[in-house]
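To illustrate the input format used throughout this study, we show a single complete record. The first block contains the structure-token representation of the backbone; no residue identities are included at this stage. The design step must infer an amino acid for every position from geometry alone.
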């Protein structure tokens, strides 16, 4: 009768099963006390989801605030689902959001000493660990075909028992080793399964960093650990990787909670200490009053590409996601108006459990705040970068005169309570349109919204007078006095109390006069500070706009 060792050697010939040898290649990290090693481990199966960005951000922040290490690992063992180029795209998107891995897979080559950081290149490592389990009798060779599995499932359904490959239903779990040897030698196809010693009638538990003590049904499924293609499943791969890479916290989506018992069994049977787990809430959306998961199909905001397309600055999206992550963030943000995320301490304890709710209004709010603090050339450059891909007409305006564009978007930003006109780059063109003569001409062609109580001749006269006699200097007080002086000449009352006492005696009050000027200059009844607008438009453009045909 062959031994377990013989079988292990038969299926994984020449593979060194010594865990000591393996661990010698990946020695324990020497980091400061409290330093966390986290990782973002996407499967390269498409674009970056908002939920994945959220997960990556949390991992990154945990590593940064504890002076630890943040790893980017490509989990591509499901080769059928892998999409070519998705790995590069995912990494590039992370980096655009300033989430730069300390270690990991990069297209130009791995960074770090714990690689390869791409699971498909780690087959030899997993095989060593699998061989170790085979020798220990904690894994076995399983010849069940998909058809066999289906039959087992049908039998289980008929007798109303839990479906799956476990216990007495795990057909090949206790095959005599000589039969295993014969069938392997005969070239039968097989997988390697984990031999679970659990019992689904019992409970098991673990402490989640977000959810606290979680009690679950124990695992007794003999899950596949090595597939027919020689690659492991996620369950086994992450155990091996997170151990050898020295991960201290696995932060991942809550959909992995039910698999955690088997993961913990695998760690235990490998003789390794498990990392701490933090299962993040799924990002939900309010849809006609009901909460549901953000859907790739229905919700554009489920893809990070949406935020890029709309022109939300990456920093704003991160700030927003942090407000979703921690309930104390909003309060912090009021006292820390710079919204510098590196100064905020993230904590699992402040995380809400009942599904983080995606709220576009809140994103817009934070984005307005972030944008109100960005100014000058760096802002112009960022908008330009965006416009190159998403808005040729805005790009053309910027390139016409970058300095003029910069003044237009930075209007009223030097104040303690800066103006917050736009929440995203795609709002900017409309908000600065009036600064551009060609756009202003279009507004004029549609008709400027002057108050109907003034006739055209009166408006024309008043504006012409303003154009000639207004103070064009930098002093706002002097300018306003000059406007009032002209307004007074044209029958506007400059003292509100007097106006209120007898409105019929006047053309209007000073605000009415300014309203006419505002419409003539900006094409709208609402605009930024008129004195600043005049300063940006400059004397000649102002005179042209105040000269009606
Ligand atoms: N590849 C897994 C996923 O994309 C990673 C889960 C984990 O972080 O461990 O869901």
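Output of the design step:
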């Amino acid at each position: 009768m062959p031994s377990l060792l013989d079988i292990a050697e038969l299926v994984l010939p020449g593979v060194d099963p010594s865990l000591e040898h393996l661990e010698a290649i990946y020695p324990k990290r020497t980091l400061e006390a409290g330093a966390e090693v986290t990782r973002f481990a996407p499967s390269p199966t498409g674009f970056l989801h908002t939920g994945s960005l959220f997960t990556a951000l949390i991992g990154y922040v945990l590593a940064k605030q504890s002076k630890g290490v943040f790893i980017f690992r490509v989990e591509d063992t499901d080769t059928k689902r892998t999409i070519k180029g998705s790995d590069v795209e995912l990494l590039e998107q992370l980096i655009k959001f300033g989430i730069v891995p300390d270690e990991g897979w990069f297209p130009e080559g791995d960074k770090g000493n714990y690689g390869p950081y791409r699971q498909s290149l780690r087959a030899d490592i997993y095989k060593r660990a699998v061989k170790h389990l085979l020798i220990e009798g904690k894994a076995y060779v399983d010849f069940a075909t998909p058809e066999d599995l289906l039959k087992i499932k049908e039998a289980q359904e008929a007798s109303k028992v839990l479906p799956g490959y476990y216990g007495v239903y795990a057909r090949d779990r206790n095959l005599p080793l000589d039969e295993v040897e014969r069938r392997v030698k005969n070239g039968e196809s097989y997988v390697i399964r984990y031999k679970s010693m659990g019992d689904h009638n019992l409970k098991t538990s673990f402490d989640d960093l977000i959810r606290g003590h979680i009690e679950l049904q124990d695992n007794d499924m003999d899950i596949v650990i090595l597939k027919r293609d020689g690659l492991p499943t996620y369950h086994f791969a992450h155990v091996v990787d997170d151990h050898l890479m020295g991960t201290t916290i696995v932060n991942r989506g809550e959909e992995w909670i039910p698999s955690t018992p088997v993961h913990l069994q695998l760690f235990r049977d490998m003789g390794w200490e498990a990392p701490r787990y933090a299962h993040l809430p799924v990002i939900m959306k309010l849809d006609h009053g009901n909460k549901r998961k953000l859907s790739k199909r229905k919700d554009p905001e489920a893809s990070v590409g949406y935020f890029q397309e709309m022109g939300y600055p990456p920093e704003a999206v991160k700030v927003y996601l942090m407000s979703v992550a921690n309930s104390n963030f909003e309060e912090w943000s009021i006292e820390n108006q710079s919204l510098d995320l590196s100064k905020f301490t993230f904590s699992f304890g402040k995380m809400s459990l009942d599904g983080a709710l995606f709220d576009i209004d809140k994103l817009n709010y934070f984005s307005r705040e972030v944008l109100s603090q960005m100014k000058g050339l760096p802002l112009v450059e960022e908008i330009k970068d965006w416009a190159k891909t998403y808005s040729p007409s805005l790009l053309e305006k910027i390139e016409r005169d970058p300095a003029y564009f910069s003044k237009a978007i930075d209007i009223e930003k030097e104040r303690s309570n800066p103006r917050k006109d736009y929440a995203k780059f795609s709002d900017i063109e409309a908000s600065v349109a009036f600064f551009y003569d060609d756009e202003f001409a279009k507004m004029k062609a549609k008709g400027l919204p002057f108050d109907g109580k003034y006739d055209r001749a009166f408006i024309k006269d008043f504006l012409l007078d303003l154009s000639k006699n207004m103070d064009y200097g930098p002093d706002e007080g002097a300018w306003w006095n000059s406007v009032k002086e002209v307004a007074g000449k044209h029958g506007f009352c400059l003292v509100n109390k007097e106006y209120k006492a007898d409105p019929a005696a006047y053309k209007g009050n000073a605000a009415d006069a300014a309203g006419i000027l505002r419409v003539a200059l900006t094409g709208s009844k609402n605009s930024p500070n008129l004195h600043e607008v005049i300063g940006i438009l400059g004397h000649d453009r102002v005179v042209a706009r105040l000269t009606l045909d």
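Structural context for interpreting the output: Residues 286-373 form a domain with the Glutamyl-tRNA Synthetase; domain 2 fold (CATH 1.10.1160.10). The radius of gyration is 33 Å.
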